Amino acid sequence: MPNTKHTIIRYQALDKCFRNKSKRYFIDDLVNTCQSAIENFTGNAEGVQKRQVYDDIAFMMSENGYNAPIEKDKMGRKVYYYYSDVNFSINNQPLTESEALELKETLITLNRFKGLPQFEWIENITTRLEASFQFGKQANEIIEFDQNEFLKGKEFINTLYHAIINKTVLLVTYESFKSGLNTIIEFHPYYLKQYNNRWFSFGQNPNFDNITNLALDRIINIEISDKQYAETSIDFKEYFEDIIGVTFDENQNPIEITIRIEKSLWPYIKTKPLHGSQKIKQEQQDYIDICLQLIPNYELESVLLQYGERLTVLEPEALRKSLKERTKMMMGNYNSVYTMH
User: Fold this and answer.
1) pLDDT tens across 194-203, in order?
2) Fewer Cβ close by (within 10 Å): the C or N end of the chain?
3) Domains of the chain: residue spans and CATH
4) pTM of the shown model
5) Taking the CB of residue 327, how many other CB atoms lie within 10 A of it?
6) How far is CA 14 from the centre of its chain?
7) Where does the record place a coiled coil (predicted)?
């Protein structure tokens, strides 16, 4: 079997060439087409070798491949390739076992989304592949993603997703964790985001000028409204660039935050940066000072506090003060005379 990296992309590219009766494809044309297809799909300009394409053609023609009716003719001293059967396509053929295995491996990775309404098809396809190709089920799971299968509110993801796509206004019954009361909100949904194993939807509530953030685990019910949808020009990828998490104060601008990291903690912060703006300010024997450019919020404070005494905010003073107050309250909790027996 040929080199397996990007095989499906190359097979699809070759299939299109062999079906095209208006053009003759010589080996150099096939190589260039495969290379362009991989670059368009992956974004990487990866070289494809002639030997690789020859191996692909041989495999596509074999019984283990597609039994493809690939013919070749000469034009002068050059050879071009085509299907002798104009109706043939590898997409009309049953999956080969190697393709099915590759597809199943992809589906196993996609199973991280199981439980979400729009991904119910994954489990169905995996089951059908196992039945068709007699794949032995893995006795033990060998990969696990960080997720909360029991999270409340994920049943609304499908409704919100399609409302965003179809530009539909919703009436959301929402429970306030502070008051415990339910309110009905007119909501124009724009974006879905997962953070810390919770889902949030961002959109417009006509009662407020700023973007409204709804936590899905507080949604009680959603109904469709026939009101006119208010569109937005916000690029939400850029919207979240200056914060950690989902809490955004539109009245603030990003500021520089200087943090001192203990030497023993630095390898973890270096390989998993706190934020995309993270840069080293100075490196000493016992510590490293880094700086971030972002808007302080509750999620940032929570992330910083999880590293305990091994991390210290140097600037700005307002953030230092907020963290100091929270650590004082924590100390008070642990110094309390109350203990459980």
Assistant:
1) 999 899 999 9
2) C
3) 7-92 (1.10.10.10), 154-239 (2.30.30), 255-335 (3.30.70)
4) 0.63
5) 13
6) 29
7) none
